[in-house]
Amino acid sequence: MKSRMYRMFVGFICLTSFTVPFSAAASASSEAYAHPRLGKHLHELTMGLNPCVLFLGTHGASAISHNCGRTWSRIPALNGIDAMEATMSPNGRIIGVAGHVGARMSFNGGATWKNVSRTLPANDVHGFGFDLKNPQRLVAYVNGRGVYESRDGGSHWTALAPLPGANPMAMMAMPMGDIMVQGNRIMFPSMAMGIYVSMDDGKTWQIEDTHVIGMNLHASPDNSRQFVLSGMPETGMFVSADGGHTWKNYPLPLGALVAGPISENTLYAAGYDNLRPYLWRSGDDGHTWKRVALPWTGTW
User: Fold this and answer.
1) Contact yes or no for 290/267 (Cβ under 8 A)
2) What is the pLDDT of residue 113?
3) Contact 115, 102 (CB under 8 A)
4) Which whole number is the average pLDDT over 175-189?
5) What's the predicted TM-score (pTM) here?
6) What is the pLDDT at residue 40?
7) Each residue of 18-77: pLDDT tens digit?
């Protein structure tokens, strides 16, 4: 799904000039790392406070790494489950994923998973997130139905106010991505309209930062006011250090599609180089990058 959207997005938006230089020329390690075969569509990359614990989601499978991406373990319970969005708690124990077949949550680092979307009006969940301070509070955008909130871990859902300008039939206008839930504030991106923001628990909405484009929105696990937005290859990534009031545009390494949150100045990006998947790491907030993983057999 997302890969088709990437192609449709080409030519839709003019790439803004980047404000920070970077070095994408870095050699891969000589060690042949082992990785899972995950399918064709890369969707998500996120981590907790420990910058060596990474979650990677694709259209049909997901995997987790506990050693900075050197080796990966597939998550059997998520085989065939689309991970369009993923959020990880700072301690790495709570993970939420969502996509075309609903939303799942794990409270033990990915060992077991619970379906938290059974009572939503449909399973096509294009946006999802939970409050990091209260993981029983969930917010989901159901394609064509609107935004819903649960206060009891997904047992019951309540519709929130309609989104301004949201058009489920216009692919570039529909909300898509990770939903940030911080107290009374809810925010999530669309692919072309900017960022939807509510300051009153979803009673009213406004569109902000129309120049900020992406699908993967993450808060830093050690700084809740620092956000990273990525997911559109033509725009790189956007970083905010003031809770989303202002943003800076940074490039990603050549071929990278998605970036995870920044933790202790460490940032990961994943994507393709000559149609082969790679993982990059930055130790200086994305100014310079080093390729830390060799491509695994097959494609994501």
Assistant:
1) no
2) 96
3) yes
4) 89
5) 0.83
6) 53
7) 333 333 333 233 222 333 434 457 889 999 999 999 999 888 889 899 888 888 888 999
What does DSSP say about strands 125-131 and 177-178: parallel, antiparallel, or unpaired? Answer: parallel
CB 89 within 8 A of CB 129: no
SS (H, E, C) the chain: CHHHHHHHHCCCCCCCCCCCCCECCCCCCCCCCCCCCCCCCEEEEEECCCCCCEEEEECCCEEEECCCCCCCEECHHHCCCCCCEEEECCCCCCEEEEECCEEEEECCCCCCCEECCCCCCCCCEEEEEEECCEEEEEEEEECCCEEEEECCCCCCCEECCCCCCCCCCCCCCCECEECEEECCEEEEEECCCCEEEECCCCCCCEEECCCCCCCEEEEECCEEEEEEEEEECCCEEEEECCCCCCCEEECCCCCEEEECCCECCEEEEEEEECCEEEEEEECCCCCECEEEECCCCCCC
pLDDT at site 28: 30
208 neighbors 195 (Cβ within 8 angstroms)? yes
The 10s digit of each residue's pLDDT in 244-289 is 999 999 999 888 888 999 998 999 999 877 667 788 999 998 989 9
178, pLDDT greater than 70: yes
Nearest to 259 by CA among 231, 284, 219: 231
Instruction: List the domains of the chain with CATH numbers.
Output: 2-293 (2.130.10.10)
Report the candidate in 231, 213, 296 with the shortest Cα–Cα distance to residue 269: 231
